[in-house]
Specification:
The complex is a heterodimer of chains A (109) and B (110). With 109 residues, chain A is mainly β. Helices cover 0% and strands 57% of the residues of chain A. Chain A has no helices and eleven strands. In chain A, strands 2, 4, 5, 9, 10 and 11 form a six-stranded mixed beta sheet that branches. Chain A has a five-stranded antiparallel beta sheet with strand order 1-3-8-7-6, with no helix packed on it. The N and C termini of chain A lie far apart (41 Å). With 110 residues, chain B is mainly beta. Chain B is built from no helices and ten strands. In chain B, the strands form two sheets. In chain B, strands 2, 4, 5, 8, 9 and 10 form a six-stranded mixed beta sheet that branches. Chain B has a four-stranded antiparallel beta sheet with strand order 1-3-7-6, with no helix packed on it. The radius of gyration of chain B is 13 Å and the shape is globular. Chain B starts with a strand and ends with a strand. Classes of the chains: A mainly beta (109), B mainly beta (110). Chains A and B meet through strand 4, strand 5 and strand 10 of A and strand 4, strand 5, strand 8 and strand 9 of B.
Chain lengths: 109, 110
């Protein structure tokens, strides 16, 4: 099955800094999603991005499907960005998601 | 409702007891998923329902775990004879185009 690996596992930033989170996947996928799990455990959808680039405010994501990786960019980080960022992939849009182990981000004031 | 809801929010039980967890999906979402998240880990797929098709049970860890869904509405996940290793957060998601997650049920087996 699909293997999903995320890096780095942990990241500490000063407020205002930029960061890039990486997700590698082992097989061709038709569904790639990024989530933010806040400190209360709620998973929040960030992007559905099986290919290409999308932007939403200070966040943007790029997936290069042919090279089997996706990047999540966070610009001008804020303390509210803290939490765990998960990448998840599946073979088809409707199928089960395989999650990476996450990147735990801590943004210091 | 506006999002996926789950109940109870927290459940503490004794080893060997059965527990039932409930998920109410977003209205109109045809697909429903259950996942498990152990402390500090990513999510593990458990089971997937899509309309009237046979559910994908490939992620259920043992025959102590089962789930049902009535039509395109509520789903229940049942764990029989709970073990301490079952302690985790159980998350439900529903999908129209992408998966949206509920807040989870935190299960602690003593």
């Amino acid at each position: 099955g699909i293997q999903v690996e995320q890096s780095p596992p942990d990241l500490i930033l000063q407020e205002g800094a930029n960061s890039t989170l990486r997700c590698n996947f082992s097989d061709s996928v038709n569904n790639l999603q990024w989530f933010h799990q806040n400190p209360w455990g709620q998973l929040i959808n960030l992007f559905y991005i099986p290919s290409g680039t999308k932007q939403n405010g200070r966040l943007s994501a790029t997936t290069v499907a042919t090279e089997r990786y996706s990047l999540l960019y966070i610009s001008s980080s804020q303390t509210t960005d803290s939490g765990v960022y998960f990448c998840a992939a599946s073979y088809n849009q409707g199928g089960k998601l395989i999650f990476g182990q996450g990147t735990e981000l801590s943004v210091k004031p | 409702g506006a999002g996926v809801s789950q109940s109870p929010s927290n459940k503490v039980t004794e080893k060997g007891k059965d527990v039932e967890l409930r998920c109410d999906p977003i209205s109109g979402h045809t697909a429903l998923y259950w996942y498990r998240q152990r402390l500090g880990q990513g999510l593990e797929f458990l089971i997937y329902f899509q309309g009237n098709s046979a559910p994908d049970k490939s992620g259920l860890p043992s025959d102590r775990f089962s789930a049902e869904r009535t039509g395109e509405s509520v789903s229940t996940l049942t764990i029989q004879r709970t073990q301490q290793e079952d302690s985790a957060v159980y998350l439900c998601a529903s999908r129209k185009e992408t998966q949206y997650f509920g807040p989870g049920t935190r299960l602690l087996v003593l």
